[in-house]
Design goal:
single chain, alpha/beta, Rossmann fold, 2 domains, 57% helix
C-alpha cells in the first residue's frame, strides 16, 4: 500500500515537473505569460509529493501543531488543485460544443498584431471565421479589438483588412476598435448587434481555452453565444490554459 502511494506521489511530481517546463517555455520565445503565476503552485505540489515522508518527519518534531500545519497546507493545495481541475473540465466541455448552424452573427475576438499583419494566433481565428463565412454567406462578421501596447494599429482594423484580402465582402464586416479586454470585446460587439439589427445569436471565434469566459461575458452582454474554436499550438496550450484559469476565476468572483 505504501509502495502504491509512493508511486502515485512520484507520478504527481512528474506531472508537476512537466507543467513547470511548459509554463517556462514562453520565456525561450521572448515573452512572459500570466499563466506563469501558477508556477509556485505546481512547484509546491511537486515538492510535497516527492518529500512527503521527510515533511511528515519534520512535522512530527514540531510538537502537536507540526502535523496539523502540514495537513492544512496539503488540504489547501488539494482544494485549489481540485478547483483548477473542475474549471478545466468546464472550459473543455464548453469549447467542445458545436457552433450553432443557425447563427447569423460571427464575433472574432482580437489578439496581438504585428504592424499590418495578424499574429499567428489571430490569423488562425480569422481563417476559422473566413471558413464559416464562406459556408454561411448571409452571416455578418464583427471584428473586435483595440490598439494594444506595442501595436501600430487597432487589432480590429488589421483583422478587417485580412478578411477583405481573403475574399470577404466589406459590407459584411462590422468594426469594433475600442475594446481593451474580453469583457469589452463582447459588450461593445453586443452594442453593434443592437445598433445594426444583427442576430443576437452569435458564433464566437477564439481559441479553445478562451471560449468559456467569452461565453459568460457574451451572456452578460445580452448575446447567445456558441463556440467556434481555432487551433492553438500544443506546446503553448498549457501556459495559455493556466492563464485562462486565473482569468476565469477573476471573472467568476469579480465579474470582469
Amino acid at each position: 500500500m505504501k509502495t502504491a502511494g509512493k508511486k502515485l506521489r512520484l507520478l504527481l511530481a512528474a506531472l508537476c515537473l512537466v507543467m513547470i517546463v511548459f509554463l517556462l517555455l514562453p520565456l525561450f520565445f521572448g515573452f512572459f505569460s500570466g499563466g506563469m503565476v501558477l508556477l509556485p503552485f505546481f512547484a509546491a505540489v511537486g515538492y510535497a509529493a516527492v518529500r512527503y515522508d521527510r515533511l511528515l518527519a519534520i512535522a512530527d518534531r514540531k510538537a502537536k501543531w507540526g502535523r496539523a500545519v502540514l495537513k492544512v497546507g496539503i488540504a489547501l493545495l488539494t482544494a485549489f488543485g481540485i478547483l483548477l481541475a473542475g474549471l478545466s473540465v468546464w472550459m473543455a466541455a464548453w469549447a467542445a460544443r458545436p457552433a450553432d448552424e443557425q447563427a447569423q452573427t460571427v464575433i472574432v475576438l482580437g489578439c496581438k498584431v504585428h504592424g499590418d499583419e495578424p499574429s499567428t494566433m489571430l490569423r488562425r481565428r480569422l481563417d476559422a471565421a473566413i471558413d464559416w463565412a464562406n459556408k454561411n454567406p448571409q452571416s455578418s462578421i464583427i471584428v473586435t479589438g483595440g490598439k494594444g501596447n506595442g501595436e501600430d494599429k487597432a487589432e480590429a482594423e488589421v483583422m478587417r483588412n485580412y478578411l477583405i484580402a481573403n475574399g470577404i465582402e466589406p459590407r459584411r464586416i462590422y468594426l469594433e476598435n475600442q475594446a481593451e479586454n474580453t469583457l469589452e470585446n463582447l459588450e461593445l460587439s453586443a452594442k453593434i448587434v443592437r445598433q445594426n439589427g444583427l442576430d443576437s445569436n452569435a458564433v464566437v471565434v477564439t481559441d479553445h481555452f478562451h471560449q468559456l469566459r467569452a461565453a459568460l461575458f457574451a451572456r452578460k452582454a445580452g448575446l447567445e453565444a456558441s463556440p467556434l474554436s481555432c487551433y492553438t499550438q500544443w506546446y503553448f496550450l498549457p501556459v495559455y490554459w493556466c492563464r485562462e484559469l486565473l482569468a476565469l476565476l477573476r471573472a467568476l468572483v469579480l465579474g470582469f
